[in-house]
Amino acid sequence: MTIHVQEQLKKHKEIHYPESDGKPMAETDLHREMMVHVIQTLQAFLAGVQAYVSGNLLIYYEEGNPKRSVAPDCFVVFGVEQRRRRIYKTWEEGRGPDVVIEVTSNSTRREDMVDKMHLYARLGVGEYFLYDPTSDYLPQPLIGYRLNSERVYQPIEAEMGEHAQGNGGPTADSSFVSRLLGLRLALDRQGTLQFYHPATGDRILSQYEAQAKQEQARADEERRRAKQEQMRADEERRRADEAEVEITRLRAELERLQSQ
Fold first, then answer.
1. What does the DSSP 8-state code read for residue 74?
2. Looking at domain 3-205, which CATH architecture does it have?
3. 77 and which of 52, 176, 238, 246 could share a cystine (Cβ 3.0–4.6 Å)?
4. How does 185-219 read in b/e, with b if 16+ C-beta sit within 10 Å?
């Protein structure tokens, strides 16, 4: 091994890729809650698929240059194992994000609409969605873009009117269908970004909601079983009481016969 190669290897090993860029996770409680909600919902939906869902995690996209990084609020990478990572290096994983969702705020709107849009297009992010939970910073609270063959983002045509009459209730205004996710993105009546099955209109539950639903179902099942046990116990007591009454009657009848 030559000295030059040894120096290159040493230099490569010494490169440090930080786990934080020093920026806060979100501007407000609402933005943080919406970010977590989006991540957890997509993680629950893609739990059985070879896909990595994360957010606010540094993605390094140029080997050897730790300054080339971006931290989307939520991103999905198909064909990559879902496991915990401290950072994401595109050259080690073999691919970059397929879908990115940014929760836009006052301090990030220009970056989300200009800088990040150009970067995500260059990285080949197939679909890019911007969500403004306060409806203050974007032309409309939900916007979608799809990358064309020339690596230029084209607006996804919005579908107006009410949608998703499933268990998530109707939604108003505009919605967008993500071809890559196979889901419809729309705002519910509270302005929260939700995900729906396009065919059925059923809302996708987040991990927290799914767990709460399972716990509620278990609690309901336990109450049902307890009620059945109580009904069986009541029936046994009724039969015992009837048997006691019958025994008392038969004894009285026997005593009457014996006294004749």
1. E
2. Alpha-Beta Complex (3.90)
3. 52
4. bbbbeebbbbbbbeeebebbbbbeebeeeeeeeee
Residue 259 is which amino acid? S
pTM for the model stands at 0.74
Please state, in angstroms and rounded to a whole number, the distance separating the CA atoms of residues 236 and 221: 22
Q: Rounded to whole angstroms, how far apart are CA atoms 214 and 162? A: 29
Residues 6+ apart with CB under 8 A from 108: 27, 102
Label residue 61 exposed, middle or buried (CB < 10 Å: 0-12, 13-18, 19+): middle
Per-domain boundaries in the chain: 3-205, 206-260
Please give the full DSSP string across 203-247, using - where no structure is assigned. BPPPHHHHHHHHHHHHHHHHHHHHHHHHHHHHHHHHHHHHHHHHH
Q: Which residues contact 27 (CB under 8 A, 6 or more apart)?
A: 105, 106, 107, 108
- How would residue 194 be classed by pLDDT, with cut points 50, 70 and 90? very high
Quote the CA–CA distance of 240 and 40 in Å, as a whole number.
Answer: 54
**The pLDDT of residue 173:** 58
As a whole number of Å, the end-to-end CA separation of the chain is 122
153 and 147 Cβ atoms separated by less than 8 Å: yes
> 106: how many CB neighbours lie within 10 A of its CB?
13
Residues 63 and 80: their CA atoms lie apart, in Å, by: 19
